[in-house]
Amino acid sequence: MSVLKEFRLPDVGEGLTEADIVRWHVKPGDTVAVNQIIVEIETAKAVVELPSPYEGTVASLLVPEGQTADVGTPIIAVDTNPEGTGPASVPAEAAAQREISQAEDLIPAPPVEGASEPGMIGSPAPKAERQAVLVGYGVKLGTTTRRARKTTPRQNGNGRAGTGAAASPAPVPSPAPATNGSGSGATLAKPPVRRMARGLGGDLSGLTGTGPRGSITRADVQQAAAASQAPPVPEQGRVVSTSARPAGAREERIAIRGVRKHTAAAMAASAFTAPHVTEFLQIDITETMAATARLRTLPEFGDIRVSPLLLVARALIIAAARHPMINSSWDEAAQEIVVKRYVNLGIAAATDRGLVVPNVKDAHAMTLPQLAAALAQLAETARAGKATPADLSGGTITITNVGIFGVDTGTPILSPGEAAILAFGQVKDAPWVVDGELAVRKVCTLALSFDHRLVDGDLGSAVLRDVGAMLTDPLRMLAWS
Q1: Do 277 and 452 contact (CB within 8 A), yes or no?
Q2: Catalytic residues
Q3: Burial of 212 (C-beta count, 10 Å sphere; 0-12/13-18/19+)
Q4: How many CB atoms lie under 10 A from the CB of residue 111?
C-alpha cells in the first residue's frame, strides 16, 4: 500500500512564521533521498535550501513557486512506499480539500491576452503532529494564502470590455521564449525579476532573455512592458486619445515580502524605539590607503581581496574594546544593559533581495588576515543570496560602507538590538592642511549613529575620534590593541 508523507514548512530559525517558495528542485514522479535538496525558500532573512526528510517518490508539490506559505503548511507529499498498490494514507478531509483546491486552479481564465493570478483559495491545514524537521522546530499551524485573483475584462462580441469588469494590466509581449540552453524550455529569471513581471501583469515565458545563459533581466521586462504601453500611432488627419491606456500601466506594484518586508519592519522599529544621535568626522585617510596597498603585497593575505574596509573594521573593533558600552544592547524586558565582551561585526550589504546585515562572529579574536578572509567570504555569500539566518543573527555592532555608492556619508539607522553603527564614506582627493601647508590628500567622512539611551555624546564622540585617529595613523592600531 502506498504511504504518503507530507513535509511541512519548518521554522528555519528565530520564530519565522512564513516563507515564499522560490524554486522547486523536484517534480512529481521524481525519486528523492533523505537530505536531498528539494526546494529553495525565501524567508524574511535569507534564501534557504530545504532537504527532504523522506525517501521515496514525489507524489505532488502542494505549494507552487512564487506562493507564500505559513510555517506548518504541507508543501510536498512523498510516497515512501511507491511499490504499493493500496490507497494513499492521506487524511480524507485534507485530500478532499486539496482536490477542491486543484479543481479551482484548473478553472480557465477569461479569454483575454495576458497572464492572470491564481484565485484566493485555501482551507485550514490538517492538524499537524509534532515532527522533527531537519532545519528548526516550532511548527505553527496555518494556511497557505494566495493573492486575490485579478479581474480581467471579458470581451463582448463587438470587442469592447463587458460592464463591471476591471481593466487588466498591460500584458508583456511574447517573442521567442528564453530557455536554459538545454532544450528544456525552462524560463531562467531571478525571483526579483519574476516579481517585477508579475507586478506588471506579464508572462516571462514569452520573453527573450539577454542575460547570462539567456536569462531574463529587469531590463528585458521593463523594455517589454514599455513596448506594450506605447500609444497607438494616429492615422493621418485623426486624433487618437491616449486616455484608453490600461489602468496601472504607468505604475509598478511589487509585493512586500521576504528580506525587504523584514528590513522595513526592523528599521521602522529601530528608528522609533531607540533615540538616534549621529555625529560626523572628516579625516585624512592617506596613510590608511597606503597601508592597504602594502597589505595587498604581503604573502599572508594571498588571494584575499584587501580593501580599506578591513582597516576600518579593525579600528572599530579596537575602539569597542576601549569603550565597551558602545558594544552593548538595551534589554527592555529585563530593564538591563547588556555589555558584550565579544564583537560580532555586522557589514551592511545591498543585494537584489534588499538590505541584509550578515556578521562576522567573534571578529575581535581574529588576526588581520583572518578578518580579511571572513569579510571577503561574507561579501561573497551576501551577493550570492546565500546568507543563512545564523549569518544574519547575533550582530553586536555594524559598519555600512556607503562610499561604494559614491556618497560622502549618511545618517545610518541602527540595526535592532545594537548600540552603534558606523558609516564609511567615499575616499576622494581633497585639499588638506598638513604641517601648515596646503596639500592634496585622501579624505573621507565618517558618521557614527548611536542609541542615546546607552551612549551619551561624550562616549559617542570618543569612539568616533578613536576610529578617526587610527585611520589617520594606522600605527595607533598597534599601540591600542
Answers
A1: yes
A2: 452
A3: exposed
A4: 8
The separation between CA 386 and the C-alpha centre of its own chain, rounded to angstroms, equals 9
Report residue 384 as a C-alpha cell.
Answer: 550570492
Task: For the chain, list the domains and their CATH numbers.
Answer: 1-150 (2.40.50.100), 171-226 (4.10.320.10), 259-480 (3.30.559.10)
Provide the whole-model pTM. 0.56
- CA 395, CA 223: separation in Å to the nearest integer? 41
Specify whether the CB–CB gap between 354 and 260 falls below 8 A.
Answer: yes
What are the tens digits of pLDDT across the range 67-83?
Answer: 888 888 999 999 988 77
Q: Which of 32-41, 102-111, 280-289 is least confident? A: 102-111
Burial classification of residue 427, based on how many CB atoms lie within 10 Å of its CB (0-12 exposed, 13-18 middle, 19 or more buried): middle
Pick the closest to residue 347 from 364, 361, 360 (CA basis).
360
Backbone torsions φ then ψ of 430, nearest 5 degrees = -155, 155
389-411 pLDDT, tens digit per residue, is 888 889 999 999 999 999 999 99
